[in-house]
Amino acid sequence: LCITCNIQFSIQNSGLGDINHHIQTKKHQDRMKSIEANSSNRIDVAYNVTTTELNKLCAVEGAMVFNTVKHSHSYISHACTIKIIKKYFPDSSTAKNITCDKTKFIFIIYAREIACNVLAPSLTRNIKMVPIVVQFFSKTVVKHGILEFIEQMHESADDLFANIKYVLEANELKLNQLVSLGSDNTNVNVGNQQSVFALFEKLLLGLIKGTCYCHVLHNSVKHGNEHLLFDIEAALLKIYSHFCRSFVRSQELTNYFGFIE
Question: Within the chain, what is the greatest distance between any pair of CA atoms?
């Protein structure tokens, strides 16, 4: 239903294409010009569509969530935008009452209507996500947690460095208190001149490079395999064949693994 023209039309054939086609029709264009020229012919007046303050607030919060998802902004960026809007428009009751924090943001995203119309198109491609994790000392134990998940389209050292630095500063963490930096990303663990670690080291002299021991073990086995005096692949295939052909043997092996764990 187009309340501007007060007519119904079908969107069965091409969906958004049908809507765009109707918008381009002469009747719709003439009706829009008439409404713009005469303030008394506004949509809400002409068709008695009243908008409560709560509906305005819901529309604003929904639109802001849509914009955040569409442009791949973070929770931090979303929260910062809300704070700025409240300061820019102190006389607006709608702006003053916006309370779309992280928890409410997530619930709005997973509402069925928005999930179908906003998230579904964005999930048709792969998205590279980078978790920013911190580990720190408390009075009693060592604690760790995830600060932020960010979408990282380009995995260059400069982009990773800029995003990590932004997340740390946005969470009010002092860079001069950063002691160590590590990741399983190649741009962090290698490269003396152009790597994420090298870029941070220019700001923080004496920064310790964190090493992923799983990668060290993997690389050791990978390169050590070239110097073995027997065919490791053939040995593994024989071991697999020995257990996979017998249920009793495989069950004994399963029980052994359970005992070890």
Answer: 91
| Domain final residue, candidates 69, 93, 122 | 122
- The residue that leads in pLDDT, 226 or 120, is 226
Q: How far is CA 161 from the centre of its chain?
A: 17
Distance of CA 46 to the CA centre of its chain: 42
Looking up tokens 């639109």, which residue turns up? 63
Question: For residue 153, is pLDDT > 80?
Answer: no
Instruction: With H, G, I as helix, E, B as strand and everything else as coil, classify residue 70.
Output: helix
- E strand segments, 152-245: 180-182, 208-210
Q: Identify the burial level of 229 via C-beta atoms within 10 angstroms of its C-beta, where 0-12 means exposed, 13-18 middle and 19 or more buried.
A: exposed
Q: What are 175-212's pLDDT values in tens digits?
A: 888 888 887 655 555 566 778 888 888 888 888 887 77
Evaluate whether residue 192 is within a structural domain.
Answer: yes
User: Which parts of 129-195 fold into alpha helices (H)?
Assistant: 157-170, 186-189
239 shares a domain with 205: no
- What's the domain range around 180? 129-213
- Residues 114 and 66: beta-carbon distance below 8 Å: yes
pTM, rounded to two decimals:
0.39
CA distances from 255 to 237, 239, 246, 247, 249 (A): 21, 17, 14, 12, 10
Please list, in sequence order, all residues whose beta carbon lies within 8 angstroms of the beta carbon of residue 187, skipping any fewer than 6 positions away.
155, 156, 157, 160, 195, 196
Bridging pattern class, strands 129-137 and 208-210? unpaired
**Interatomic CA distance for residues 132 and 190, integer angstroms:** 19
Distance (Å, whole) CA 10 – CA 17: 11
For the chain, the domain total comes to 4
